[in-house]
Amino acid sequence: MAAISLHRVSKRFADGTAAVKDVSLSIADGEFFILVGPSGCGKSTLLNMIVGLEDVSDGEIRVAGQRVNETDPKDRNMAMVFQSYAIYPHMTVRENMAFPLRLARLPADEIARRVAQAADMLELGALLERKPRSLSGGQRQRVAMGRAMVRKPRAFLLDEPLSNLDARLRVQMRTEIARLQRRLGTTTVYVTHDQTEAMTLGDRIAILRRGEVQQVGTPRELYEHPCNLFVAGFIGSPAMNFFPAELRQDRSLQLPMGECRLPEETRRRLPAERSAFIAGIRPEHFQDATLGPQTAEHQLRFAIRVDVVEWLGAELFVHFDAEEATRASLPALPEDLELNIASSAKLRLVARIDTASQAREGEQLELGLDVRKLHLFDPETGASVS
């Protein structure tokens, strides 16, 4: 096992494209660390630099305290698991798992012992004599994991290993990978574009955007205290709702749904020179106001006309328009956030409410918004101010 540190690491390709820009990270020994972000943000390039498949343009990478910038991939003692499995079709499961050990010229009895041990942990014992074509996608991914495990590497590097699996298998394999990492205690760097994988697997997460790290923290820290608009919109499903907000002279906040009083502690943090903000609220911080008593001090109640209802058994999503706020009144947002706001004349919002609600499409519904859960952002820089 080994700690991994990156100090001001950058990657520029021959055509001048900067894929990774001045990234500094510290990954603890035994930590499950996630690199997450949209396609093209530089996360796979960063992983390839750690393992040695890409050269570092600037900066330094250290593994267990030793600089590895000039070290060949085979000498870094790291095991990589790819999205496409990358197992040999003409070899059996046993031969695939034993292959890196044979290359290392380990004794036959040691190879057999390690393969048997990994196969037992991954429940592959009954499949050792099969070839990949007779395996399911989940089984192939476990073979790829087993081939990495038998090497006893200093770190596991996983590049979107679940992307080719169907939804049910992704959930199953996600649980298996988490259980396996906890059992082995090996430093793991995991790349994904799926924020659900990131939130459920990682001890800590680094969110990347256009080659730059936006925020590093635990899943709870990123969810509850996003540092900017991008992180707020990326973490959470459904995504956070955004809409314009204006701070009045009496320090009340005008939202598309009405006027509310912010908690004193929030008001104290707001910059005195600014009155216009972008407000954000997560879908789960709305309530159906008809279902029970509301705390008037922290609730903004307002009526909506329900556009779409999505009932998922344990969850109920209500989609509606903020009738008084047109999209034109919202300051320009980064392109990355456009997917979080429907491209229509009005602001489309979504609420996750109690399944006991009688919400019906086309009908009126009274909602409550928990003002204490509002996030406020500077419309010019995108930075959180609340």
Overview of the molecule:
The structure is a single chain. This protein is α+β, with helices and mostly antiparallel strands and 386 residues long. Helices cover 23% and strands 32% of the residues. It contains 9 helices and 20 strands. The strands form 4 sheets. A 6-stranded mixed β-sheet has the order 6-7-8-3-9-10, sandwiched between helices. A 5-stranded antiparallel β-sheet has the order 13-12-11-14-20. The chain has a 5-stranded antiparallel β-sheet with strand order 15-19-16-17-18, with no helix packed on it. Helix 2 (93-103) crosses helix 3 and helix 2 (93-103) packs parallel to helix 4 (137-149). The two termini are 39 Å apart.
Outline the secondary-structure elements.
Layout: E1 4-12, E2 18-27, E3 32-36, H1 43-51, E4 58-63, E5 66-67, E6 78-81, H2 93-103, H3 108-121, H4 137-149, E7 155-159, H5 167-184, E8 187-192, H6 195-201, E9 204-209, E10 212-217, H7 219-224, H8 229-234, E11 241-247, E12 252-255, E13 258-261, H9 264-269, E14 276-281, E15 286-288, E16 299-311, E17 316-326, E18 346-353, E19 364-370, E20 375-377
Parallel strand pairs: 3-8, 3-9, 6-7, 7-8
Antiparallel strand pairs: 1-2, 1-4, 4-5, 9-10, 11-12, 11-14, 12-13, 14-20, 15-19, 16-17, 16-19, 17-18
Helix pairs in contact: 2-3, 2-4
